[in-house]
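debug: dumping io for the single-chain case to check the tokenizer round-trip. Nothing else runs in this session.
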Amino acid sequence: MRPAWAFLPWFGPRYKIGCLIPLDGEDGRLGIAVLKGLSLALEVLSSSPAFKLRVYNTASDPNYAAMQLKKMQKDGCSLGVALLGQKTAKGVVHMAQKIKMPLIVMTNERNLELGQVVYRDFVTDQIQLMNLASFALQDLGLHSFIILYPQNKYGQRYAHLFASAVVQNGGEIRKMFGYPPQKTDFGDIIKKIIGYRIAESSPEILITHPPTFPFDAIFIADTSLEATFIISQFAYYNARNLIFLGTALWNNPKFLSNIKQYCRAIYFPSPFNPKAQKPWVRAFVKRYQSAYKELPNYLAAQAYEIGTIIGYLESVAHLDIKGLPQYVQNFPGVTGTTTFLTNGDVDKKIWIVEVK
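debug: decoded output
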């Protein structure tokens, strides 16, 4: 059996909090990031902590993870925080509902039995794209969009979610173009989008007759590498003055530096931005760097935010998880503004990165 860990404080805490995370293999580093953020928020190593943190290993195994959840309850934990992947999410959530173990889950998985005793706090792909579409239409004043996406599960899902979010916000999708994954030559698609006359005109002609396009922006549901191919080729075909929208996969410093010369601007959602100027974000980054000598990533930030919510919930509702929808509305967390819904899910307003 894999051991359960425990951070033991010097004085008696009022509550035990369980932390269910992967600790083995490649997923282990993800679990450690969650552990670092949660520990920092709950101050479990302070001289007089309110919480004791017990750590349980999912081992990325659905049956073992469910057993660990039952052990968490047996050990007397008042509430659990769980980082769950595709293999473990449904089984752990189902077990939590079955044994009535209060749980806040960090997972992007769909069709979970949320509500009652299980709540999610996580920047899902749907939240990312709803925030991006809302920003594009309401803040930037854009209305019509072209969508480019690779013909794989990621591209198809993100293209569908963005199109749905645009329509919900009153916008319009002009056209959608799918392409094979790892495609590198996009000339055929680009000419269909901007028109053959513009694509084949000389730069001198376009200086006196600047091109106009029947859309406001282009959304690319692909990696930063593929987006580099696409955006640079739009510039090659005389379409430099365009706005591009992307996903969190674009948060790559090398990509952002190289791509600026090829377009007017790019925008993409960011689940966590360590450079955000909100005072609570700056305070968190400073504390995290001081404690661990490194910058926090998104999972560390999300776990820290959950820890601060747990502390707040303890003060207003004696840690009763059913109080989340009542008391946590527009909560200013480090991943954005968080509102818990009565159905057990979460609504978040997250950062949008702008590069001009």
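debug: round-trip ok. The first strand starts at residue 5 and ends at 7.
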